[in-house]
Fold this sequence. Notes:
mainly alpha, 3 strands, 76% helix, 3% strand
Amino acid sequence: MSNSSSLNEFLLLAFADTRELQLLHFSLFLGIYLAALLGNGLLITAVACDHRLHTPMYFFLLNLSLLDLGIVSTTVPKSMANSLMDTRAISFSGCAAQVFLFVFLLGGEYSVLTVMAYDRYVAICKPLHYGSIMGSTACAKMAAAAWASSFVNAVLHTANTFSIPLCQGNTVDQFFCEIPQILKLSCSDSYLREIGLIVFSLCLVFLCFVLIVLSYVQIFTVVLRIPSEQGRRKAFSTCIPHLAVVSLCVSTVMFAYLKPPSISSPALDMVVTVLYAVVPPTMNPLIYSMRNKELKDALRKVISWIFFSSGGIAIALHK
Length: 319
């Protein structure tokens, strides 16, 4: 095959060769996917329906949950379907769509996490100016900038990746179409352009991480000066979930892309990719709701309403 335009499909890396293990993989990913859908869906519903949660912090949390839903829906369903149907194939257009959506949504996630750190910085370090700085218009502009910049970044990566001639077969050593694995199929030095873009993107991720760290240095400096222990505890409780999510996301991505080539293998690459592409979108709703009383109360109301509504429907059908 002389170039990528002659490829009709790619072959993804299978989790298992035997039918029993394929079905086990399907069951595990189905459980993870349903947990991600349920957790993020409940969180989105709670924030949208509870007027007490119509604040900048929860607005950005809603954006984060939308991105998490997109990330897990981009990669997991296709892998599940391939295991269930005992195939490894993905169409060329499907692979391009996976690359675009994954880069777009993952980039948006890191942008929103950075904006959330700024929101916490303003709330704790400049509380008297919080209403004027983090008004509804400003929040909408920040969210739009995060989504738009990620969209442009994804377009550049996708267009550049699939314009590179591919002649090393069509087997992608990953359970979804990931740019570094596709670049291994290239047959010229033209892939160096995309390597440059990846390095640039990683630098942007690192810049986001630095901005988050600087925000929290300022936050902790102010919080430790609060005289009351209750005040310090309350301030920390709004920051710890965000720090946990940032640590989980950044550490797994950095390890995935910066690990030494000497320890790289298809099996390890797959495990690491699951850790940064599947685990964070599933865990984020749990992390944010564990120490947040307002969110817990809103989630209880949503769950109670769902059970009440389903019970009413069942009674009506029974009649």
